[in-house]
Amino acid sequence: MDQVYKKLELVGSSKNSVEDAIAGALAKAGKTVRNMRWFEVAEIRGFIENEKVAYYQVTLKVGFTVEGTKLP
Amino acid sequence: MDQVYKKLELVGSSKNSVEDAIAGALAKAGKTVRNMRWFEVAEIRGFIENEKVAYYQVTLKVGFTVEGTKLP
Amino acid sequence: MDQVYKKLELVGSSKNSVEDAIAGALAKAGKTVRNMRWFEVAEIRGFIENEKVAYYQVTLKVGFTVEGTKLP
Amino acid sequence: MDQVYKKLELVGSSKNSVEDAIAGALAKAGKTVRNMRWFEVAEIRGFIENEKVAYYQVTLKVGFTVEGTKLP
Amino acid sequence: MDQVYKKLELVGSSKNSVEDAIAGALAKAGKTVRNMRWFEVAEIRGFIENEKVAYYQVTLKVGFTVEGTKLP
Amino acid sequence: MDQVYKKLELVGSSKNSVEDAIAGALAKAGKTVRNMRWFEVAEIRGFIENEKVAYYQVTLKVGFTVEGTKLP
Amino acid sequence: MDQVYKKLELVGSSKNSVEDAIAGALAKAGKTVRNMRWFEVAEIRGFIENEKVAYYQVTLKVGFTVEGTKLP
Amino acid sequence: MDQVYKKLELVGSSKNSVEDAIAGALAKAGKTVRNMRWFEVAEIRGFIENEKVAYYQVTLKVGFTVEGTKLP
Amino acid sequence: MDQVYKKLELVGSSKNSVEDAIAGALAKAGKTVRNMRWFEVAEIRGFIENEKVAYYQVTLKVGFTVEGTKLP
Amino acid sequence: MDQVYKKLELVGSSKNSVEDAIAGALAKAGKTVRNMRWFEVAEIRGFIENEKVAYYQVTLKVGFTVEGTKLP
Amino acid sequence: MDQVYKKLELVGSSKNSVEDAIAGALAKAGKTVRNMRWFEVAEIRGFIENEKVAYYQVTLKVGFTVEGTKLP
Amino acid sequence: MDQVYKKLELVGSSKNSVEDAIAGALAKAGKTVRNMRWFEVAEIRGFIENEKVAYYQVTLKVGFTVEGTKLP
User: Fold this and answer.
1) In the beta sheet, which residues pair with residue C36?
2) Which conformational region is residue J18 in: left (phi greater than 0), alpha (psi within -120 to 50 degrees), or beta?
């Protein structure tokens, strides 16, 4: 059948790395969204304290299948 | 009254055409979202098999009124 | 803890000003979304009647915390 | 001689397809603009009624030669 | 029938506000263009004198119906 | 193992439709490139004759696997 | 008074240089448009013959005052 | 003589309006930068408290002449 | 003499990190392209399985010198 | 009071990772700029030697408060 | 027949001018690519020595017909 | 060592050419900024008098090393 996806926009954050900020956002979203299939990084930014990165903030668009999920 | 809309991002797919991919996404979304008013095409892409288009994938932003609908 | 945000896309409208269109969108969204933290203006447009602005339409992306809220 | 073109921005609409919306815009513009040479699709959007596409709206930039045409 | 629109690009200016710059552009354009329907803000800028805004300059794209109007 | 793709940029043309212009580009490319997997539409434009579309031109980015193919 | 400008989109061409393509477009437009004030380069491209530039094509947006000029 | 300008990027904020956020940024910058001539709005965003705009944040690029000013 | 470069577009993937996806794409391309000099990251995305990143996909543009290499 | 920020554009580099390139830029900038608050990644690129990343180059926009700092 | 083009991305450089950098890239590419038809300027940058332009670098996309040429 | 660069945004102008406007901006900036390494052209525009280019205005981003220079 012709598949339909919905895209959700999330911002994850981490003290350690861009990859951890992505992982954190997916873990959190995964508690209520099933069937997440792909993500696209829309923005990488972060906050600074004492001339160091306090934490990274990564904005993601996440695509997931809408079978059996209530929209929106 | 001053109207408020919400925009939803969807990806529809079709073997036949860009128009059918849009129609498929709207039909699916229409099962749970009421009062969809307009769409904007954000991206057209597709998958290839044997040097032919296997299916088109069209990313849409869909605007709908939020009267009586629970957000988000 | 590492915080996760979701971003919602809204369109507010007002006869008076860009600022009122933003306020209207937030007031409406605030009835069902808690913990809205920031917004980004994505587009400013409007409708015209008799050579005057009939109303402004402002598209916003709104970030909110997802603690205790069901996604999406 | 060194040729000069002007570009005009049009929005065509059609119930049927993106291609028909383009054709409609060109047919209408052709009544008063001569020597149209090329177009560029700037935006594809549309309106929705009953979960279906009511009509497509395609924004075009159209280039035409300005020989013997009054500018602008 | 399938409607066709033309888009015109204008720059309005005002000492007071973004909204007044838009109104001024529409009032001026309205003297020769009929049937203006919508506008899109493309750019907001301005000039500075003595560390203050001397005037705002707002670039608009204005859509209008081309019935009975000579193009371009 | 970790897969690597190359992306190729093509322009296809057709008198009939956007979809046929895409198909034409893929058919031609398929004579020398194997393993094409996906495409992304980068631009839609066309040429005009007698106020009609003479042909559509669609610019595609095409992704293909580089196993066993000589790069570039 | 609050000034209003209109912006016109032109494409000039020249065998010699980007600057000559701009000059050619302005000279041509100047035959029917008065009060041109500024231009913005939107695109630089060109055609090739025998591995050499046959001519440059420069797309300009030109701003002019609309006092006493009929719009559009 | 051929004039040279420098552009500075500032973020102003205000509880009231976009225009006040711009004015605040210029007033502050004007204490150390002389000869500011124009600004361009790059981004409009803001923070939310209790479903209302707590303050607007407007990012500006400000152009100023570099005569007699030490760069950067 | 005046140097000429060609730019190639690649997509690398890795289970571990953005950096490993870049390294994988360069290693693969290096088997057939000599004299690669720089890369630009055009897009970061990835696939998700069980609420975790299955692999990162990084799109790169790679510049290399064309001395002695057959184009394209 | 209404806060004003300035944004500075920096390019950091590192042999190891995107994160280290960011950290290096902030450490260097921190010697002369106080009160840095946030950064935005504008570009990720790098140089290649022997088919490997020689170093990453990350372009950042850094926001800092301008209290007591001389502008620009 | 429906024509298919391929687009190639090149970077030319010259001590003298933007136009010479374009010419250099085309001359070099013309040794191995036949049937180049048009180019689009994607980026203009350059290197500086002693406060002067050491050389301009112009990134071009070049379109050429793929008849009889092996892809890619 | 890991190198850090700062980027400065300048606007140069010239009656003659794009290249002269770039040269003028670099000459002026070179009086107070040392170690400028590269530039990127961000915008080309100009002013018009009597249907001719009165002067070109070229916006540049200039990268320079921050060794021993006070930031910002």
Assistant:
1) C64
2) alpha
Interface test with G, best of K5, K6, K9, K18 (most G CBs within 10 A): K18
User: Which residue did the predictor score with more confidence, I17 or D32?
Assistant: I17
What CATH number does domain F5-65 carry, 3.40.50.1220, 3.30.1660.10, 3.30.870.10, 3.55.50.30? 3.30.1660.10
Q: Each residue of F39-58: pLDDT tens digit?
A: 999 999 999 999 999 999 99
Question: Which residue of chain E has the CA closest to C45?
Answer: E40
Q: What are the pLDDT digits (tens) for C31-72? A: 999 999 999 999 999 999 999 999 999 999 999 998 644 444
User: Would you tell me how many other CB atoms lie within 10 Å of the CB of residue L46?
Assistant: 23
Task: Name the CATH superfamily housing domain B14-65.
Answer: Flavin-binding protein dodecin (3.30.1660.10)
CA dist., res. D21 & res. F46, Å (int): 14
* Pairwise CA distance, residues E69 & A44, whole Å: 48
- Nearest residue in chain E measured CA to CA from D66: E72
Indicate which of K17, K19, K44 best probes the interface with L, i.e. most L CBs within 10 Å of its own CB: K44
- B59 contacts in chain A (CB < 8 Å): 7
Q: Report the share of chain D in percent with pLDDT over 70.
A: 90
Say how far apart CA J54 and CA J31 lie, in whole Å: 26
**Do residue C48 and residue E27 have CB atoms under 8 angstroms apart?**
no
Nearest Cα of chain H lies from the Cα of C68 at a distance, in angstroms, of 17
The SS3 of residue H24 is: helix
Q: What are phi and psi of D61, to 5 degrees?
A: -105, 125
Taking the C-alpha atoms of residue E65 and residue B30, their distance in angstroms, rounded to an integer, is 31
In the predicted structure, residue A1 carries a pLDDT above the cut 60:
no
- Can you give the pLDDT at residue A15? 97
In the DSSP assignment, the letter for residue B34 is -
Please state, in angstroms and as integers, the Cα–Cα distance from residue G41 to each residue in D72, E59, G32, following that order. 18, 16, 21
The tens digit of pLDDT for each residue in B1-59 reads 478 999 999 999 999 999 999 999 999 999 999 999 999 999 999 999 999 999 999 99
Q: Choose the CATH number for J8-65 among 3.30.1660.10, 3.30.750.24, 3.40.50.300, 2.30.120.10.
A: 3.30.1660.10
Give how far Cα K18 sits from Cα of C59, G42, L9, Å.
40, 16, 20
What ipTM did this prediction achieve? 0.93
Q: Kindly list the distances between the CA atom of residue L10 and the CA atoms of H64, J62, K50, in Å, as whole numbers in the listed order.
A: 10, 18, 17
Judging contact as 3 or more Cβ pairs under 8 Å, the answer for D and F is: yes
- pLDDT of res. K2: 72
CA torsion, ordered G61, G64, G70, G72, to nearest 10 deg: 20
Residue of J nearest to I22 (CA): J53
In this prediction, residues A51-58 reach a mean pLDDT of 97
